[in-house]
Design goal:
single chain, mainly alpha, two-stranded antiparallel sheet, two-stranded antiparallel ribbon, 14 helices, 4 strands
Length: 379
């Protein structure tokens, strides 16, 4: 909105030209969502408390978590509000990728909201059945993929690029009927993996911030062109340096605008973390974890970093695999691999203090994102 307004007025007032630059709007979006979170969370937490919207703790969870029962939940509603408002204000709303990512984020938030509401109404941790939730999520993503592949607004391909391998040397082009289910699994899997990770105070939001920051860099780089001057034999020569070409980043026309969306997530998540850090004053709930996970999964798909995302989302992937491993092992052998799944509960049962688990998982998330970014140069 502001982008459209200021861009329209730039001929009347030349300083408004600054709004053309993604770099300026990235900072503006991050600050906007951060300020919204900081200013509104105290009021929002009080509102949740007055409505008795408190966390329902699973009966078979660690005993230390029973004291958290009643802590305000569904704080993800305000994360979503801050992200959507900041994106609408600072992004180019004519860009189709902005609409797609916002649409998935909001739709997954609705699914999470229904799940949270059912848990609160029934006063248990069951909520929406897993099968029903997955069906709805896959339905949402299927519609997304149909829009992307049948609309002329998108320039999209079914190519996959391997981490650490140059894009001009190797890419795998999948048939549409193979790529679409694969992309759907990436988005839905990421959403539910973030949901599984959200089990300790601040545990999930830390890696979300790191992953969003990483995709901010990846999206921004796709359209970053540097110009520098050099005098050769008395003649000034202007050189053009395309960052995406140099790093061999898959180029999707228009995807750089998603850097504003990523910045909005970072700002809103940092603001939320201020109140979600141990001991948490508010939890994000499924409305937050599913929407943020859906957003990250969609970013991985539309920026063509589906396989690189396995590194960036390493923490979420391990959390999901720990649940799958535990379930399969118990059904086949009657034995458990972990003391409790997801894996963060395993370390709790081993006696690790909650803050230690959280910070160590954050550190691993940072390391994995650095490896992912380093892989671009190693191409």
């Amino acid at each position: 909105m502001l982008f459209e307004l200021f861009f329209w007025l730039k001929d009347e007032f030349s300083p408004l030209n600054v709004f053309r630059y993604v770099s300026f709007r990235v900072v503006a979006a991050m600050l906007t969502s951060l300020l919204i979170s900081f200013l509104l969370y105290p009021w929002f937490i009080r509102k949740l408390q007055s409505q008795q919207i408190g966390q329902v703790i699973r009966d078979d969870g660690p005993e230390a978590h029973f004291a958290k029962a009643g802590t305000p939940t569904m704080g993800g509603v305000l994360i979503l509000f801050a992200v959507v408002i900041s994106t609408l204000l600072w992004a180019d709303l004519k860009n189709p990728y902005v609409g797609v990512v916002l649409g998935v984020t909001v739709c997954f938030a609705v699914v999470g909201f229904v799940d949270d509401f059912m848990k609160l109404r029934a006063s248990n941790s069951d909520g929406l059945s897993g099968r029903m939730r997955l069906c709805v999520e896959f339905g949402i993503v299927f519609l997304l993929m149909m829009v992307m592949f049948h609309s002329e607004a998108f320039s999209y391909s079914t190519e996959l690029y391997l981490p650490f391998v140059a894009t001009d040397r190797f890419s795998l082009t999948l048939p549409l009927w193979v790529y679409v289910p694969f992309a759907m699994v990436v988005i839905v899997g990421t959403a539910n993996a973030v949901n599984l990770t959200d089990g300790l105070d601040g545990l999930a939001i830390g890696p979300v911030i790191v992953a969003s920051g990483t995709f901010l860099i990846l999206a921004w780089s796709t359209a970053t062109v540097l110009h520098y001057e050099e005098v050769i034999e008395g003649i000034k020569v202007v050189h053009r340096f395309d960052v995406a070409e140099y790093l061999m980043i898959p180029k999707v026309e228009g995807v750089q605008e998603l850097a504003i969306f990523c910045a909005a997530i970072v700002g809103a998540s940092v603001g939320f973390l201020w109140y979600n850090a141990f001991p948490a004053q508010v939890f994000m709930g499924d409305v937050g974890s599913l929407s943020l996970g859906g957003a990250l999964g969609t970013l991985a798909v539309v920026t063509k970093h589906e396989l690189l995302a396995t590194i960036i989302f390493g923490i979420f992937l391990v959390e999901a695999l720990s649940v799958i491993t535990q379930t399969v092992s118990y059904k086949l052998t009657g034995k458990r691999v972990f003391k409790m799944a997801p894996i963060h509960h395993h370390y709790e049962m081993k006696g690790w203090p909650e803050p230690k688990i959280i910070v160590r998982f954050w550190i691993i998330a940072i390391m994995l994102s650095l490896v992912a970014l380093m892989s671009l140069k190693l191409r």
